[in-house]
Amino acid sequence: MPDNRIIEIFDSTLRDGAQGEGISYSVRDKLYIIKALDEFGVDYIEAGIPASNPKDTEFFERAREVSLVKAKLCAFGSTHRKNLQPEEDPNLNALLHAGTPCVTVFGKAHLLHAERVLGVSDNENLELVGTTIEYLKKHLDEVIFDAEHFFDGFAYNPDHALAIVKAAFDVGADCVTLCDTNGGTLPERIAHLTSIVCEKFPGKRIGIHTHDDSGLAVASAMSAVNAGASMVQGTFTGIGERCGNCDLSVIIPNLTLKYGMQCGASPVKLASLMETARRVSDISNIAVRPTKPYTGKSAFTHKGGMHIDATEKLDGAYEHINPKLVGNKRRLLASEVSGRTTVVELARQVIPGLERTSPETALITEKLKELEHEGYQFEAADASFELLIRKLACDYKPHFDVVLYKTTDDFPMADGKLQSSAMVQVEVGGNTETTASLGNGPVNALDIALKRALTVFYPVLSEVKLTDFKVRVLEANSTTAAKVRVLIESTDSHRVWTTVGVSHDIIEASFIALADALEYKLSMSENQPTNK
User: Pick from 39, 89, 369, 449: most CB atoms within 10 A?
Assistant: First the structure.
């Protein structure tokens, strides 16, 4: 049944997400991310620990100048130290100095952790929580308390875990978040204990914070919401400590489209979900997993001929939602299993009105099968396939011709690095340009040299960056004489596309894919060359 409750969205990408392996944000990165999250419409942005390092200190100072429309910025910290009064604790004072309208403070809800980690008794632990929140509430309108290890703590000593929640509410905590800090509690247990808390504290705001150590962070958070929780904490792409956190880019559409709930007080802009996920991922220097629900490149992608035929005849035949609802789109893959129906649907994106019986359809289909027999793989190289269609059926004229290219390798230097060089000559409209470049390997040198030569005529190509490079040996029994396939992923910060090259020579295969990547960018932009 549809549930019209409003679920608050609390984003911890810049705090818990930043604790993920390989994640490191500059101050500028964090400022970009809070703007992206605010535009999307989350309610809270937990942005770091003010006293932890100079970078976070600088961030909170600069964040005061940022005008957020929907989100509240939160600083994060712990209860005060056992031998200090709250007003003497430098961490609590750093929270207040951060100048955020809301703070999140965590405390131990697991008695064993309180005793062994903090060295306090059960009553002392309750006092730490109470005095910390009481002190913060004297200076702030809103304090959120994270009950760390609540679910494991309940299993160890349920009375103490519940007493911690009560202690927080008794002194004015605006919301208490139940944390599955180790990520090991199963969804049904999460639901059961959340319902107990909601029944014991009626009318109070209860949040849920889950980790993905069992692969159940989203499912567990949804179970808690079903049991009465009204706030979901998570990170926008699921990054975070160890295996990560509840993925907001998955749970938000689940709650909105499956349960009929409103996510965010505003609410969030669900149609910009994919764009926001990619913005956050790009700044985080990580790739969105292709098979990621809702926002992955493959989330609404079809390859099998029967699937494609059914999907074209009946919307939703193999899609659980309309991809436009989350800013994604349907993709059809060209491969050796493709029939004419598939080819027609793909080609119509380039040639509107193309029919199944058109001679161009037969030409494209046969060429596709021929090239895939040679080792090409177009299902993962949408840009190369679109260029193939244009060249076969659209009287397409390439934007440039490669006159020659050459690479050389030098022996390793004293520091062990291998320096390579490349020379490329291109022709555009009767004019030629020859450039040379050094690089970390021949492919890198070719990439730099080709782009350098072409930006003389097409400055827009300076936007293009190579983001992924894959090589696969196609004939394992041929050893070093084997044919190889190279897939290259490129981006201009707005779009992502993939091109393919196949050859017995890995340099040639790479250059084919590199040239296609730049040609595709020019075909999208329909750029005219600049006079030299």
Answer: 449
